[in-house]
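Sample intake sheet
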Amino acid sequence: MSGRKPDNTGSRPRAKKSLGQNFLISGKVIDRIVKALDPGSGIPIMEIGPGTGALTGPLAEKGARIAAFELDRRLSKELGERFAGSDNVEIVEADVREIDFDLEAKRREWEKYRVAGNIPYLLTSTIMIKLGLLERSAGAVIMVQKEVGERILTSPGKRGCGILSVFLQAWFDISMVTTARAGAFIPKPKVDSVVLSFTPEAREGAPRDRKGFLGFVKISFSQRRKKLVNVLGNLLGEGGKPEAAALMGEAGTDAGLRPEELSLDDWFRLYGVFEKR
């Protein structure tokens, strides 16, 4: 099966550079993504940007219920025609940035669902943050640019971690499913990709207010090379540095640290102190 090519109907459409389209053609990568999504579990799937249906087809064949959201009108139309006779696949022409997945699940009476997709690189941060804010999600299997994937997997406190590392690892157990070389796509992107699996598993001490925590982490990393006490001091306003240092001390956090040097537990304690201020 690893050498299988996806079943495409008709000629492969020309990718639109403006939409960041790169169509997945590697049967090996497709098989691994499908396996990671566990279509036999009965948990429905929200697919982001199905493109030519390279994932949609194999998932549908295994009985998965799928709601696939495609922005490209021509692809949405072609997929709609291809799956017109399927009672477990719904093709929706929509911009994923405007989709509330929890609401879409509620409309379909889906208690839980998984998110899947080979997302355009230019939308990676937007989609990842959206994923982190979902409440009904049973997890996700997402393909991202290799460099971004490595950052997401980097433990907070290690060099190279960032906003996505801290935010996503607070609520998910994240693992790598597989890699995808540039040759796994048409047209070939300039970089390699990785497929990540996200399993909901809130870390002990994770804040209840996800949006508030996200905002705090974003501000903290806005000047990542500066010591965090200076960044938070600016946030507190004129003369705020001494107060920031005191609050960091209350949280048990070294005032001399930079954002990427804080562990996840450090972030939880620090946010808790600032939230109560």
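Comment: The chain has two domains: 17-200, 210-276. The chain is about 35% helix and 20% strand.
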